[in-house]
Amino acid sequence: MLVKYRKDYQKIVLGLLSFSPDLDNYDRLQEEIDWSNSAHQPIYLWRAPYSEQFVGVAVLEEGTDYILLRRLSFTPSERSGKNVYDFLSAIAKHYEPKRLMGTLATQPLVTNWARSTVFRVRPTEEE
Question: What does 25-38 look like in DSSP terms, one character per residue?
């Protein structure tokens, strides 16, 4: 389930972002949250449907016709393709008709998600 960031989720977001290799110290994590927490740079958390705990976080940047996935982090035990793709699908649905895009670091993930989503919803030639 997609959940918008609130101030009382700050420790959860810090914990989830700490799994990113380039955000390995507290001050850098805090800078990322402070910079990201604005109207055009929303943060969303992901709660798996079978759990009451947050297992992922996405830092986005909102443009006029796109949503840029700046950061995506999951707990190590929840980094399955299904969780990641469900999270990206929920973000894309929330921001329709804007296009979900990635940075140099996140674009391969977004591309793979888009391909899998296209193949899942595209009707077969027999239909």
Answer: SHHHHHHHHHHH-B
CB 37 within 8 A of CB 17: no
**CA 74 to CA 78: how far, in whole Å?**
6
- pTM of structure: 0.80
Distance, in Å, from the CA atom of 120 to the CA atom of 21, rounded to the nearest integer, reads 32
Task: List % helix, strand, coil for the chain (3-state, nearest 5).
Answer: 45, 25, 30
Q: By C-alpha distance, which of 69, 67, 68 is closest to 57?
A: 69
**Which residue type is seen at 71?**
R
Residue 81 token pair: 């393709």
Question: Using 50, 70 and 90 to split pLDDT, how confident is the model at 127?
Answer: very low
